[in-house]
Amino acid sequence: MKSEDPLRADLEQNALRRVAALVATSATPAELFAAVADEVARALPVAAVALGRYEPGGAVTVLATSNAPGFAVGDRWPREHRGLAARIVDTGRAARSDDDPAPDSATGSMVGVPITVEGAVWGLICAGATDVEGLPADTDVRLQAFTELIAVAIASAESRDRLRGLADRQAALRRVATLVAEGAPAAELFAAVTQEIVRVLGVPTVSLLRYDPDGAGTVVASLNSPEFPVGSRWPLDGPSLSATILETGRPARIDDYAKLPGTLAAAVRQTGLRSGAGVPIVVDAKAWGALCVGARGNDPPPADVEARLSEFTELVGIAVSNAESRERRRRLADQQAALRRVATLAAEGAAPDELLAAVAEEVARILDVTSVTVVRYEPGREWVVVASLDDPDLPVGSRRPLDAPPGCFAAVFETGHPAQLESGAAVPIVVDGDVWGAVAVTRRRRREALPVFAGSYTGRIVLSTASTQDIEARLAAFTEIAAAALSKAQANDDLRRLAEEQAALRRVATLVARTVPPEDIFAAVADEVARILGLPRIEMVRYEDDGTATVVAASGDPPFPVGSRWALDGPSVMALVRRTGRPGRIDDYGELGGTIAEITRGAGFRSAIGAPMIVGGRTWGAIIALSALPEPIPEHSAVRLSQFTELVATAVSNATARAELVASRARIVAAGDDARRRFERDLHDGTQQRLIALRLDLQRIRAAIAEDPQAAQAGLGEAERDLESVLEEVRKVSRGLHPAQLSRGGLRPSLKALAGKSPISVDVDVEIEERPPAPVETGVYYVVSEALTNAIKHSRASAISVTVARDEARVRATVADDGVGGAVAGTGAGTGLTGLSDRVAALGGRISVESPPGRGTRISVELPIATPAAP
User: How far, in Å, CA of 544 to CA of 35, rounded?
Assistant: First the structure.
């Protein structure tokens, strides 16, 4: 077969003329490609012809064939199976393959020539032969004549397509720009963009997605993709167009979703999409969202689709920016109006409940949220709902533990900062530096879509685009006003309560100052406490030495009547205060055992608080308040209760002191009377009788002087001796009134003299350089004397120690023994230790007795140097 065959040359020329005619008549590419394949097969000595186009991914798509059963129109050959085609696209020149036939072809050798359009290898045409002589050497040159005609046709067609596509895109962009300029609703604009893209770019599916603050994406428009309905949210948890665009801020393309992990990739595979491309929607220099297109089968989206999509996303970005700007202005105006309304209520002194209810309504109005809840934190790690809007699970008055759902309230309380919910936020209400409560909102996630163009666009659109941070900031503006109003209301309440408390305390203090009987003071305190606390049941009890409690006053109709006595044998506030000596509370008597708990529960009371009355350093009694309300008594009520216990303790202390003073004075008077009677008895029974007898002797001696002078002289001597004896008796009596040795030598010799008369060993240590005033010195002497007498009589001790010391202000004396202990001051007149207490109290001093059983007794006395003046 010779290439110089004239007949074959004519055939080629005729074939070229026919192809040129088709090019001139603007035949369709498919018609042109099919004609070229047939003409080449007829004009050239080849057995098979195939014409293909190089794709962006490197594969070759078959466009036309003639006598080539191994190549079907539409087939796509991957790069690794391209052989001859790979050398052509890599070099841009013709190539031969006499020993490397194409797969599934019947040809023995092949020649391929590139189709070059505007300087780039657009495709190729291949011819194959089966005879042993193979293809002529000039086959590539003869094929090139056809490729030149094909290139002209393709360039012309692409130019027309570009012009037509440009016109279509410009018209589509004008329509979208008109919607932007008119401020069309977001739903309408997004739907229009998706429809225009499908129309002018020829892609099968389009989705427009918005990035949410939590890192997910929400579909805001979708066309021909029912698997991605509008309003659906998708986590960006794996490779996807949306994730890549968010991460890079640049266009992205995925050629094959087949093996990609992640939720979004799995959903794409379920739609039948194989590849896709997308571009960011940029608003305020940030990726606001993404516009993505998909392709099914082996055909990826067009190579220039990203650039075409960017033309639309620029308009969408402008529209979103304009809409958000308008929305911000509207929100600001609405918020300012709402804040003014709330501030007006606060300025008018509205009640806290009314103010917080208004805050809930205004927040719901301007934030477009589904529910608003305002809570107040309570003692005992609880919160109570004080305002609620559209939240049936949390009505006003409901009370929950601090960590109960939703957990945002615990987070706000613990940190003092806003907390985020899965679909909302909570912001603290800070009053005077303390977290008073919190406001929580639930975001409105979806609303019905606005009208959109006809088509397969269906679903709902998310309109609540405010971020959680924006919601928190706007809530904070309301909580600041609420906090200021609450602080003012709280201050007013505090002043009112303080005035009421002060008035009540003054009334009680007046009774105390007037030395009203304690039982009258107790009754008055019970009534005043009931009035101040708003609790009608107040009990006042006195603790007895046998472990019981006696009710000494009560208000209202108490379960424990005045005068009744109760054993503290079970859990109760009475027992708790007695045991701890501190304020106590029981918030629920419901499950407690014991007599007091049963009576309290049976009377309809649920909780109680109590405060101790401390008299003389010990818990004398308690004031107890009872409540039948389901919620516990507020913590501040216990503080207010304690203020009254101080006055009651003062009244009890004063009454006790007065009683002790009266008793002490009575004992002192009785002791003085006893001393006078003893002195009178001693003088009458002793000295007086001796003096009478002495007088009779002297009368007898005087009568005997004249008769018997010697006997008279002897009688005078005897009378002298009797007189000396009488004088000694008088001195003994006087020493009982005031020791002469004390007057002459002071405490050291007089106490050593006392110790010398003791049958028990006594160690005396007196460290006094300067003698104290006589009353103090005498008081110390008699205290030590009485203490030694008690020890000798009762202690069964083997040794006693006496120490006396003084400083500039006081004299201290201590008498200690190693006896059996257990000494207790008596209450009857004349009792040893009671007498000591009376003497020390009369001198303005203090006495203490430590006498644990089996560990001896220690009596300590302090007497001031400057003794109190006599009344």
Answer: 123
